[in-house]
Design brief:
The chain is α/β, with parallel strands linked by helices. The longest helix is centred in the C-terminal third of the chain and has 18 residues. The chain is built from nine helices and nine strands. It folds into two domains: about 160 residues, P-loop containing nucleotide triphosphate hydrolases (Rossmann fold); about 70 residues, no CATH class. Helix 5 crosses helix 6. The strands form two sheets. The chain has a six-stranded mixed beta sheet, with helices on both faces. The protein has a three-stranded antiparallel beta sheet with strand order 2-1-4, with helices on one face.
């Protein structure tokens, strides 16, 4: 992969924490590369370091060893340029601000105002995530799925090159989750953003990802980098196909040995 096309390079990254029980290795010797505009699902059992890996890429946790490069820069440089967005499990909206005001928040802190020129507006992004009629609604007036849509719009307001998503749909009901899976693929295609998406769901990982990084646990390490043989344009009905079922069974078998 050429340096021009590469967006994410994780090279032999390890993270160790000191605890009362001594040193704990959360992830060990993880390496992979992604092209610009790729969608990577990160799948693994609880405790395998999925969220830790995401936080290393986001410059929220320093690696104990190894290197991370994002578009040829360090995670710290990318974060300071606001080229990185993060969507957490909880939407974390401010209850006294409307949907539009919550999306605008990143533009009001630090040097965010300088990024607003020529970028997408909060209203445009709420339209993008299907909330065009809810701009002036407060969080308590929105469903859980709608609040997560606001969170996604907020993460896109700085037009990030990389979007990190840590189980954003894990707490939602199955029907809402399916709907947001479809919406996320549409948004990904329209924005061209590189996405790293953490999930516990085999079906979600396989449906969303161009690649699926399967992690083993204790410590977290690469079990397999899987490239699903599925069409780029896919709807939810693909999950009923024989090929999807076969590949999901392969991922399940991998997880059973993790």
């Amino acid at each position: 992969m050429s340096a021009l096309s590469e967006s994410v390079s994780v090279d032999n990254v390890s993270v160790r924490f000191d605890s009362d029980r001594g040193t704990v290795t959360a992830i060990e010797s993880i390496s992979f590369e992604l092209a610009r505009g790729a969608f990577l699902s990160i799948l693994g059992p609880s405790g395998c370091g999925k969220s830790t890996l995401l936080r290393v890429v986001a410059d929220l946790i320093p690696p104990s060893g190894g290197d991370v490069s994002l578009f040829g820069s360090t995670p710290a440089e990318v974060r300071k340029r606001r080229d990185l967005g993060f969507v957490f499990q909880d939407a974390a909206l401010l209850p006294w601000r409307t949907a539009r005001q919550n999306v605008e928040l990143p533009m009001e802190v630090g040097d965010g105002a300088n990024l607003a020129k020529g970028g997408p507006s909060a209203s445009d992004l709420l339209e993008l995530v299907g909330l065009g009629k809810w701009h002036d609604s407060y969080p308590h007036e929105l469903s859980g799925g709608m609040r997560q849509r606001v969170s996604i719009a907020r993460s896109l307001v700085t037009a990030p090159k990389i979007l990190l998503m840590d189980e954003p749909f894990g707490a939602l009901d199955e029907i809402t989750r399916d709907r947001l899976n479809e919406e996320l693929l549409r948004i990904w295609r329209e924005t061209g953003t590189t996405i790293l998406f953490v999930t516990h769901s085999i079906q979600e990982a396989l449906y969303l990802g161009q690649k699926v990084l399967v992690l083993a646990s204790h410590p977290g390490r690469v079990r397999e980098m899987n490239e699903p043989d599925l069409p780029d344009e896919r709807g939810l009905d693909i999950r009923e196909s024989a090929e999807f079922v076969r590949q999901a069974a392969h991922l399940r078998a991998l997880l059973e040995t993790c």
